[in-house]
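FAQ

Q: What does a record look like?
A: Structure on top, sequence underneath. For example:
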C-alpha cells in the first residue's frame, strides 16, 4: 500500500456543499425560518451547538423518511469541491467529513466523491417518520477535533500533516488543532481565530494554501 501523505478533514454544510441541510429539512415542514435563525446563531457561536441541534431537530418531528431523497436533490457541492477531493486523492491524501448534520444525507454526498471517512449525527426514525430526536452522541466541536486526531493516528500521520476546513464556531477546535486550519467563507468568530482563510466560495483554493504552507 502506498504511503499516506496527508489528511484533509472538512465540514459539510456551507463548506463541502452550499446549503445547510437542517434548514432545508425545516423548509419541508414549514419551519424553515425558525430553524435557520437558530442555525445562524449556533454558527456564530452564540448558542451551545448540542442544545441548538436538539432544539432544531425537535421541530422536524413527523417528517417522512422520504424527505432525505427530496432534500438531496436540492443540494449543490461548493465550487471546486470535487476537483479538490480528486487532486488530493491523487497526491496520496485521505479525506474525511465531520458534520453536525446527518449521516442520512452526508453518507450519500461522501459516496459520490469516494470520501474515506465520515462522522455525522443520525436522526431517529420510527415507522417511517422522524421522531424529532438525535440518536447517539452529537458531533460537537470536541468530536470534530477528536476525529481529526483519530484519523491522523490511524494513518500514522503527524497532526502537522493535516488540513482542516470549516466555516462555523463548531469547527474552531478542529481548525486550531490541524497543521493547516482554514476558515472557509466563515462566520466572523471563525475568521478572527483561524490562522488561514478563504473568502471566495471556491474550495480548490485549499490547494494553493497546502502548496504554500504545508
Amino acid at each position: 500500500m502506498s504511503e499516506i501523505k496527508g489528511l484533509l478533514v472538512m465540514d459539510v454544510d456551507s463548506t463541502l456543499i452550499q446549503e445547510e441541510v437542517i434548514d432545508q429539512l425545516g423548509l419541508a415542514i414549514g419551519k424553515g425560518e425558525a430553524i435557520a435563525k437558530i442555525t445562524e446563531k449556533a454558527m456564530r457561536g452564540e448558542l451551545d451547538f448540542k442544545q441548538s441541534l436538539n432544539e432544531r431537530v425537535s421541530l422536524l418531528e413527523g417528517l417522512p423518511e422520504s424527505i432525505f431523497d427530496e432534500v438531496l436533490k436540492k443540494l449543490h457541492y461548493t465550487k471546486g469541491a470535487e476537483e479538490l477531493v480528486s487532486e488530493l486523492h491523487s497526491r496520496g491524501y485521505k479525506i474525511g467529513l465531520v458534520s453536525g448534520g446527518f449521516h442520512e444525507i452526508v453518507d450519500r454526498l461522501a459516496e459520490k466523491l469516494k470520501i474515506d471517512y465520515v462522522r455525522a449525527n443520525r436522526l431517529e426514525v420510527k415507522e417511517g417518520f422522524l421522531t424529532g430526536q438525535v440518536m447517539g452522541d452529537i458531533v460537537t466541536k470536541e468530536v470534530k477535533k477528536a476525529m481529526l486526531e483519530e484519523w491522523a493516528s490511524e494513518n500514522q500521520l503527524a497532526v502537522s500533516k493535516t488540513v482542516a476546513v470549516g466555516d462555523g464556531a463548531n469547527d474552531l477546535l478542529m481548525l486550531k488543532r490541524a497543521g493547516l486550519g482554514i476558515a472557509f467563507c466563515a462566520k466572523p468568530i471563525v475568521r478572527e481565530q483561524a490562522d488561514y482563510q478563504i473568502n471566495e466560495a471556491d474550495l480548490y483554493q485549499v490547494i494553493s494554501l497546502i502548496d504554500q504552507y504545508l
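Q: Is there anything notable about this one?
A: The mean pLDDT is 97.
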